[in-house]
Amino acid sequence: MTAKSHKGQSFEAALAELEQVVADMESGKLSLEDSLAAYKRGAELLQLCRGKLDSVQQQVSVLEEGALKPFAVDDDK
């Protein structure tokens, strides 16, 4: 198992890698050392995915707040 850098890794790529890590661990074919490395990588990928989801959720909230505010018309002009 090779550790890949997740700098700049897309959510979809990180999720796909996480799914593969889980499948590898569930197979029962990994050594103890490889299982530990897979667990560590899985935790990193999970943190990356959660961070990206949190960021997107915050952006959606900001957009929704801005879109749902009534448009103020200045009648003085």
Automatic annotation (TrEMBL):
Catalyzed chemical reaction(s): Exonucleolytic cleavage in either 5'- to 3'- or 3'- to 5'-direction to yield nucleoside 5'-phosphates
Pfam entry (one): Exonuc_VII_S
Enzyme Commission identifier(s): 3.1.11.6
GO biological process, one term: DNA catabolic process
Record bears the keyword Cytoplasm: yes
GO function term, MF aspect, one: exodeoxyribonuclease VII activity
Function in brief: Bidirectionally degrades single-stranded DNA into large acid-insoluble oligonucleotides, which are then degraded further into small acid-soluble oligonucleotides.
Stored Gene3D superfamilies: Exonuclease VII, small subunit
Gene that this polypeptide is encoded by: xseB
Subunit: Heterooligomer composed of large and small subunits.
Stored InterPro entries: Exonuc_VII_S, Exonuc_VII_ssu_sf
One GO CC term, this protein: exodeoxyribonuclease VII complex
Record flagged with keyword Nuclease: yes
Compartments it resides in: Cytoplasm
Protein name according to UniProt: Exodeoxyribonuclease 7 small subunit
Keywords attached to this entry: Cytoplasm, Exonuclease, Hydrolase, Nuclease
The organism's place on the tree of life at top rank: Bacteria
Principal subcellular localisation of the protein: cytoplasm
Family: Belongs to the XseB family.
HAMAP family, per the entry: Exonuc_7_S
